[in-house]
């Protein structure tokens, strides 16, 4: 995403728009979370508020409050117009947690029930800070490599970038870059790990290729980066082997059974929230952009980007029914393929994957409602 610049915050709480007008859930119903879930369901995201995190933000009802110091938004947990009897607090990642991993944050703060942790990150942490994914609102990673079609009219794929020896600018430590080298699609000498999120490098040197998200940068560079103002070309990394589940919501593995009664009700609610978001993203996108404005921490995210992201998540099947059946599902064979692919790369780069790691160690689909589909 775009760069996150240092900014000051007043540290005060501010109220969101509207009031909570949701109907109270019937006692004991599927939407009644009181008594089985924490009074506040805490969800730790891995980055600043954005549409890719819509499943969590879509559950925040009216009258929410924003903690501008800690970068958290809290409100009644509302599902399809029904107040579930508990609150939800969605916490920003990135600078809000000192750019720590979500797994480390979850092990420091036991009040966090769910954290957004991509499959390769769960693999890396499995030896020391094991987490188990219970629902994957996104089915395919929006991560991409992009390039200027005018500078590279013959480039259609990542493999073409490799053949033309194009410099590829990515963040330091990006696992997919190592994967592309291992697969022979690019050479290690092509990788430049100086990406800082700002558009200046790409604008100033359009012959490079650069990382980004297909749900954001194509819109941002054409509509909001005035020094560029034209389309970019790209290929999704999911189409060249980066087949992780992006940011599935996960619990500490040791706490899975303790929270089973809550997860049995909460996971289907999260699945349905993602379906509802794709049908009508407007209210959630307004909440996300409102929260971003109130945080005022240097992260910018316009309503235009949010609306573009919602459309692209549908069109590119970033949000779609899993091969295993439901929306939010996680195919064990696909997870195992990720383990077999990434565990050796992670171990070589300092990660601590568990020896003999299996899909069942990092994914549990028992709480999913198989009937929830697009």
UniProtKB/TrEMBL annotation:
Looking up InterPro entries in the UniProt record yields: NMT1/THI5 (IPR027939)
- State the Gene3D superfamilies in the record: Periplasmic binding protein-like II
Q: Which GO terms describe its biological process?
A: thiamine biosynthetic process
Q: What name has this protein been given in UniProt?
A: ABC transporter substrate-binding protein
